[in-house]
Each structure stands twice: as structure tokens, then as C-alpha cells.
Amino acid sequence: MAPAQPSPARPRRPALLRRALTGSAILVGILLILWVVGLTLFQFPAQALGSSGYLYGRIVATGTATTPGLVRLDGGTAVQAQVQAPQAEGAPTPEAMAPVYRDGQRVQVAYTTGPDGGLIYAVSDYQRGPALYWLLILFVAVVALVGRAKGLRAVAGTAASLGIVGVFIVPAILRGASPVLVALVGSGGILALSMYFVHGVNWKTTAALAGTLVTVLVALLVGGVFLHLAHVTSFGDEDSVYVAVADPKVNLQGLVLAGVVIGALGALVDVTIGQASTVSELAHLGPRLRWWELYARAMNVGLDHIGSLVNTLVLAYVSSALPILLLLHLEQQGWRQNTNLELVAVEAIHMLCGATALVLAVPLTTLVAALLFRGDQHHDSEAEGHGHGHTHSHGAEAFAGLEAAEARAGHGL
């Protein structure tokens, strides 16, 4: 009788308990820091007031149409402010469309200097910052609990990407630089920083980065051609007109093209990381496979992803354009007239160029990875990180399918 195989060692309960306690302590610390920062941002008023600006506080009394209300500003000072009193429901007046403020609500208070030199206060809007900040805390907590260390790295990578947009891309465009060139350079920085930080410095990430950059170049080329063919002037919406009036140096056509690239980066990273990991695992399981065989087998996996990813990207663009779709439906114009509107044409170019780039990212990244990993070259070990964990099962399944097909072919001979 063969000796019984020893069962694999299991982590001891004290070790698991220590990990759980350590993770919980880190999570509580992060949430505490976010809470303190939130109090600093949304509770403390400005120390010195200029001739005009905004403060934040809570409505104590709304007042009436002829009597100002009372607002307690952050810091405890109570001031009289013009507050819109609640309107009767269904009142057919323009005022009924304005925000309806009630006692206890947190609001934004605009102030300006009056004729006598004193400050005049008026409630101008709801204060939305705290709600957004608590949503951010919820997001970070969920990512930390589910994704653990890698999830937190993803949050940090996203924050760094947004920092590149705010610190480099937007100021450079406002200074008159080419939005296309700025978007290209900024995208390279975003991709290199976020991908290497989240997925680790390894050959799989490098292959995915190369495939993504090539796809970005293709998206820029396709978008530029069709923006020219569609005669897009970039004055089809109010935002572009405001930008042109505020800063005539901004190249609006280039700005549209830059939006095409930046808008598709997230989905591109997802598909390229997945394909690079699949090719790496196939090469490791089948080191005798040549590069074109690796390419063909990995494409079988990539084709399964294309449909869902394209659908995701298209629905994301459609959801952001729902008000436009409703307006077009209400006007009851023909589809030819609707698609001829520049506002619709720009959204369509955004959506179709992004979807086209997403589809092309699969074969381009697969080709780069197949050439890089052929013969099981540059395989990243378990210790170096897997990049996109779920793709390893895809690689194993694809190679198992390859072996089954070869076995069937052998039996048929």
C-alpha cells in the first residue's frame, strides 16, 4: 500500500488572526486619516475674507420672501442670509425649479461687499463635498477589504493618474501646448506609473504597457482622421464655447482628440494586462509553442473578452450622454438630422474610436507578448507577482484545450 500523502500545511489560526488584526488596523488608520482630512476640508471656514467668495454652513432658519434667513457658518458664526423659502409642491412658477432649502441643511453661502462696506450673504447652493467625501471613504474601504494590498495600490495608482491630469495635462493645454502631444505624453506617464505600481515591475506589465502605447497611437491616428472627415469645429457644446472665450489659445479639436485617448485608458489597461498574462502562462505551460502558436491560442481567450469590454465602454459613453438622447427624442427629428449635430458627432467619435482601440488592443498586445514570451522567455515567477490573477486560469484552460485538440487529432490519424 502506498504511503499516505501528507496533507498540505495550513496557515495557523494565530497567523491568520494576526493578519486580520493588522489589516483591520491599517484600514482603520486609513479611514481615520480620511475622516480628519474631510473635517479639515469641509468644516473649517477661511481665515481671511476677501471682497467676495464662498463659505459653508448650516441653515438655522429659512426666513420668508421678505425676511432673510439665518445660517450658522462653520466655526460658529451666525449670519443673516437670503435663503429661498420652501415652495408649494407643483407651483407653476420659475422659482419652483430652483433648489428648495430647508432648516438643518448644509449649504454653500456666497458673500460680497455691499454699498456700505459690509458683507451681504446669500445661500447659493447645497454643500455636496461631504457626501462625495463619504462616498470616497466607502470606496477606499471596499477596495481595501476586497483587494487588500493590491487594491490599495490600485487606489494609489488612480490618485497618481488623476494627479498627472491635474498637474501636467490641464496646465500644459491651458498654456497653449498641443493637446494631442500633451495627451500622448501624459498617457505614457499615467500608464507607466499606474501599471507598474499596481501590477509590479515585470515582463508581463512591460508587454501590456507596450501594447497599450501602440494602441493609443492607433487611436490618435483614427480619431484625428475622422475628426477631420466629419468637419468637427469643436463649438458644438457650451463647454467648448466657454473654454474658447476664456482662453483662445486652447486647441479645441486637439482637446476632443485628447479626450478620446484619456477616456479609453482604463479599459485598455484591463484588456492588455489580461492578454499579456494569458500569453505568459501559455508560454510557461507550453515552452515548445512558437510565437504564432502562442498568438493564436491567446487570441482564443482574448476574443471572449472583446464583446463584454466593448459593450462596457459603449454603455459608459451612452450613460454620460443620456440627457442629450432625451433631448433629441423630445425634438422628434429624424436620425439623419440628429447624427448631423456636432454634439452627437463628437460623442459618437469618442465612443467608436475608444471601442475600436479596445478591439485592436487585443491582437496588438497579444503579438507583443507572444514575441516576448516565446520559448518561455522572461516568465515572471509566482514571487514576482501575477499582474492579473484571473487570467492564469484562462491560460491554463486555453493550454488544456490545446492539448485536448492535439490528442484528438492524434487519435484521428
Q: Briefly, what is this?
A:
With about 425 residues, the protein is of the alpha+beta class. Helix content is about 65%, strand content about 10%. α2 packs across α3, α3 packs antiparallel against α4 and α6 runs parallel beside α10.
Molecular structure report:
The chain is of the alpha+beta class and 413 residues long. It has two domains: 52-88 and 98-127, OB fold (Dihydrolipoamide Acetyltransferase, E2P) (Beta Barrel); 148-412. Helix content is 65%, strand content 9%. It contains eleven helices and five strands. The chain has helices at 13-42, 129-174, 179-199, 203-229, 238-246, 252-285, 291-320, 322-331, 335-340, 342-373, 390-412; strands spanning 52-61, 69-73, 78-82, 106-113, 119-126. Strands 1-2-3-5-4 form a five-stranded mixed beta barrel. A hairpin with a 5-residue loop joins strand 4 (106-113) and strand 5 (119-126). Helix 7 (291-320) packs across helix 11. The radius of gyration is 28 Å and the shape is globular. The model is unreliable at 44-48, 381-398 and 405-413 (pLDDT under 50).
Helix and strand run: HEEEEEHHHHHHHHHH
Low-pLDDT runs: 44-48, 381-398, 405-413
The first-to-last residue Cα distance is: 39 Å
* Count, helices: 11
Largest sheet entry: 5 strands, mixed, barrel
The main sheet orders its strands as 1-2-3-5-4
Into which percent range does the helicity of residues fall?
55-70%
The number of distinct structural domains comes to 2
Rg on CA atoms, Å: 28 Å
Please state the structural category: alpha+beta
Q: How many strand elements?
A: 5
SS strand fraction: 5-15%
Arithmetic mean of pLDDT:
77
Question: What would the principal axes of the Cα set say about the shape?
Answer: globular
